[in-house]
Specification:
By secondary structure, the protein is mainly beta. The chain has a single domain, classed as Jelly Rolls, CATH 2.60.120. The chain is built from no helices and nine strands. Strands 3, 4, 5, 6, 7, 8 and 9 form a seven-stranded antiparallel beta sheet that branches. Strands 1-2 form a two-stranded antiparallel sheet. The protein starts with a strand and ends with a strand.
Length: about 180
Amino acid sequence: MADYEKYDKKDDYKKDDFHDGECVKCKDPGHPVPKPILFECGTGGGFTFSANCSSSTEDNAPCICTPKTVANVTLDTSCLCRPKVKVEFSSIIHFIPDSDGHAQLEFDLVRCCKDFPECVIGTWNYEIEENDRFAKSFCFDYCDCSACPGCCTYIVKCRPVFVKNCSVCVTNCHLAIFAQGQ
């Protein structure tokens, strides 16, 4: 007989749309089997940062330096032992210069967990100096090995370091969180 056993429909098996009631049960593979993975995702609304006045300079940017939340996701890892969390963020950045536009954006990944203060766990910078309009993707990944079990919210905030003679739109923001215990 082969190294597998066939389940009968009357065995401890729940029929669903993807199976016809008969499954193959493999014997012990002799290596570690994957642990369960949690997954949550979300989308954000994005934001537009703009500085069109001639008095705007890199050192004297208008009061637009308040960080804006562009995406957030909450994940409950309380069922995992010493969870490792992978964060994937993606967005589209539209650059619309008046003439010679120049901008720098700072993206912060923030973790907020119950009984712990909010903390920035990663920062990425995106600088643009162009004459032409364009739309480009901006993405980052982060592995959080010091995540505590429990409910945590991961937030991506975007802050314009400076915006000169242009508008910068951060759109199509997506945040995906994967977690697995050890």
